[in-house]
Structure prediction request, 95 residues.
Amino acid sequence: MDSWYGRKPEKDCMRQIVYSLQHEYVSEDAEDQIKEIGLFSSREGAQEAIERLRAKPRFRDHPEGFKIYETALDCDLAWEEGFVRVDPDEKTDRH
Prediction:
């Protein structure tokens, strides 16, 4: 099971877990397509939503795109050190 940002919630934040269902794929023009479908109180509820949506237009074109993410409510799980902005037009030297 995935957790937001690749981290498991801290122990003191394990009180209330929710499951975020998203549909993600890369379009033909190489753009990330991410759809937030909903939040569920159980993994089973999110899985049931996948079953309902799997055959619908566009979802059926990308059946592997459904992702369920586990996260804890009322907890800071990421961005503890802030963030940097990357200018997509800026040329960088990557090796």
Notes: Residues 16-71 form one domain. Strands lie at 2-3, 17-26, 32-40, 66-72. The mean pLDDT is 82.
